[in-house]
Task: structure prediction
Amino acid sequence: MNKVAFTSRNLYLQVLLILVLILLVALPFYTSAYNIMLLCNILMYIIITVSWVLFSGPTGYISLASAAFFGVGIYTSAVLGQSLPLPLVIIIGGLFSFFLALLVGVITLRLRGMYFSIFTFGLVELVKHFLLWWEITKTNTRGRFVILVNYIHVFYIMLAIFLVLLLIAYLIRRSKYGLALQSIGEYEEAAAHIGINVTLLKVVTFAVSSFFIGTVGAVMATRWTYIDPVIAFDPFYSFMPVLMAIFGGMGQLYGPVIGAAIFAYLEEALITRFPYHYMLIFGIIMVVSILYLPEGLIGLLQKLWKIINSGRLAVYREKRQKRGTGREQENA
Amino acid sequence: MVIEIIDIFLSGLLMGGIYALIAVGLSMQYGVARVLNVSHGEFIMLGAFFTWSLYTYCNINPLLTLVICGPVMLLIGFVLHKTLYRSIRISSGGGAAFEGNSMLASFGLLFVIQNMAILIWGASIKGYSYLAFPVNMGGVIFPANRLVTLLFAVIISVAFYLFLARTRLGKAIRAAAQDPDAAGLMGVNINQVLALCFGLGAMMAGLAGTLLSMSFRVQPTMGLEYTLIAIIVVVLGGLGSIPGSFIGGFILGLIGSIVSAIEPSLSLVAYYMLFMILLLVKPTGILGR
Result:
């Protein structure tokens, strides 16, 4: 019974997804440039968040290096953007992030979870300060210019990356690797004992997730005309995916997507007028969601749904019980 | 040449005193209360702005502010742990889940404190002049306020060490650091002690902020850099080891001043390289258990 309900719901979901996709693809034909750019921004946050969840969700290793991989993508785009075609630049940006993540993973993923978080957090600052020093002393420049690309192209590329990422995330979740990652998150020693190559799996998944963050960086760099290390390696991009994922809920694939979409829109609406208020709200929501939303927005909705459902069930049971045990209640 | 070496050595020590104080504070919070408080630097910033406000508006001596700022920060930290971190501790059931969640909550706290400070004091850089006359030490000249900073940092750290080593409450804290559950069974009021440890950590940060504001400029975004330094020092000295954090602070200060003398903009890069090597070779730190 359960299975039937699951598949039929899945069918609805598939139809819904295809409809949304058609809507998105057709979007540039009937809406303004501003809306497309807003959607690009939302897609950027969604991709970063989903990639973050790909590794940190099941394993419980909290990576704070998203900004580093994002920045690597941005810088690749800035350096190679003039000489190479865009798709190639995007893939190279992703690959640079991939190899940086491999290196970091090999160094730190043997360590305890907390050290990993600290290290990845420091990585952003390390790369930023190194690049600043390099630009000032070696090349005598500060920052770079990036060639602009038509926003509709950017939109379609982002959409394509998003779809590939969703597919890969879905396949990993469904495969034995997803289960292995889950078991690492639950009890790493036990996972190693049942024959999972824990370190290899962690390092490769981490690298794959950073590949996507790198590609997004390379695409989004074309939206800004000028970048420098401080803009490219903004630690804010490390915190956003964590908050968005926690707020949305990591139990389901669509949790982070919804969380990211809500926050990206909030940012767009608030950050130009009240930047400090926005960051303040950002912090408060982060604390509140950790305290009161351990399963995120999706978890909350599921819980509400369950309460409503069980409420119905309870009423039904009560009616049945009244018929059966009415006499006992009279005695009491 | 000799004077240059003395100069590098002394400025390393002067910076190291502050680093030591900050790291001892974080060591209380992470080593005992198991909260990797990423907003540690924000408490330093609060202490610095507190001192700046009292000095510019009420003309209160910064050294007197130490006595006001310390207890206030202690109270803020204590209440924070009692309310926020304790509920996280209950909801996530201790262990690795608590460490992860409390770290993320303190990131949230970082944004809250930092942006509240910007809304209150504005984003601009501030400073005041106190005890800025030069002192000649064997041919090397330093402003007097930096020497006072070092003196007070050492006094506070040593007093704190004696508190931990000699008093009954200190013994309870050390017991809680080793094993909170066993300490609780032995009659230590563990919630109270953990909250106190967090408060003491915040107090150290506040005092460090007061001392920093005497010789450096203050701005609301200054905290993060000190947080990172404190984390590196705590790992360098060994988790939960107060003497380790104290010595580690001076080591990092010396490394910083040596690197700054060679290549000024690379000192943070050098810290991370040290951190990276440390994690690979000896993740337990120099005095780690």
In short: The CA atoms of residues 47 and 206 of chain B lie 4 Å apart.
